UniProtKB/TrEMBL annotation:
GO-annotated cellular components: plasma membrane
Organism phylogeny: Bacteria, Bacillati, Actinomycetota, Actinomycetes, Kitasatosporales
Enzyme class: translocase
Topology class, membrane: Peripheral membrane protein
Catalytic activity from the UniProt record: a polar amino acid(out) + ATP + H2O = a polar amino acid(in) + ADP + phosphate + H(+)
Protein name (Swiss-Prot/TrEMBL): ABC-type polar-amino-acid transporter
Cellular localisation: Cell membrane
């Protein structure tokens, strides 16, 4: 395994004239949890999306476990990967969205087995066994045959986490996984993420849950204006931030 699991190096990304990422550097070591904080529009989702190939970077590069994301190096040039290689790389990266994004016409079990069967060509029976084990892990073994609409938001998000885990990803990315939930359902989802952290899953979590960041993060990263403004251990960034912009943000969310 590479010393650095996720390596983001000088990443720039614009949408038309809007510069959304302006030279982001970020390193996540295996087994570590990085929590990204920052105001709306600061580029947090775009950063996660570039890591998961949902956006192409304009400048800079990203690697996962030593493998360049979206590119192959040849001499000092970067060549874009073909679609098939991109899809293969993406199977190493789990993504959990704010709005769950479950397949509505599939049962819970089918949601979790879909990608292993279609992308990894796992036998359906084996995939179903793994899925049941993962559903038990997120506390939903009794919901295997339910449809997403029959579940609460918190349960749907826990299925989405099981689905992401089914690909045995090298890294799990969460984009505000509890923002769409009623307040009483936030805890059960954070509990699952906390459990993953305790078992050494490498994760990048965008969230506004400061208490969770303090408790679970190895590193807290504060982004603003498309840049990493400040990063460090939770206590340093949350209790004694060095930058005025971090202080201003924290005073609003704490
Ligand atoms: P955050 O997740 O921190 O709120 P985002 O990464 O979603 O920030 O967005 C950063 C900025 O980029 C916002 O101004 C947003 O409107 C803009 N943006 C994001 N995606 C696109 C896109 N596909 N096309 C145009 N603008 C976009
Ligand atoms: Mg966002």
């Amino acid at each position: 395994m590479s010393q650095v699991m996720v390596d983001v190096h000088g990443v720039h990304k614009s949408f038309g004239a809007l510069q959304v990422l302006r030279g982001v550097d970020l390193q996540v070591r295996p087994g570590e949890v990085t929590v990204i904080l920052g105001p709306s529009g600061s580029g947090k989702s775009t950063l996660l999306r570039t890591i998961n190939h949902l956006e192409k970077v304009d400048r800079g590069w990203i690697s996962i476990d030593g493998e360049l994301i979206g590119y192959r190096r040849s001499g000092d040039k970067l060549h874009e990967l073909r679609e098939k290689e991109v899809l293969r790389q993406r199977t190493h990266i789990g993504f959990v969205f704010q709005n769950f994004n479950l397949f509505p016409h599939l049962t819970v079990l089918e949601n979790v087995t879909e990608a292993p069967v279609s992308a990894l060509r796992r036998p359906r029976k084996e995939a179903a066994g793994t899925a049941r084990r993962l559903l038990a892990r997120v506390g939903l073994e009794d919901k295997a045959d339910a449809y997403p609409r029959q579940l609460s938001g918190g349960q749907q998000q826990r299925v989405a986490i099981a689905r992401a885990l089914a690909l045995e990803p090298k890294v799990l990315l969460f984009d505000e996984p509890t923002s769409a939930l009623d307040p009483e359902l936030v805890g059960e989802v954070l509990e699952v993420i906390r459990d993953l952290a305790a078992t050494g899953t490498t994760m990048i979590v965008v969230t506004h849950e400061i208490g969770f960041a303090r408790e679970v993060a190895d590193t807290v990263v504060f982004m603003d204006g498309g840049l990493v403004v400040e990063q460090g251990p939770p206590a340093a960034v949350l209790d004694t931030p060095r930058h005025e912009r971090t202080r201003a943000f924290l005073s609003k969310v704490l």
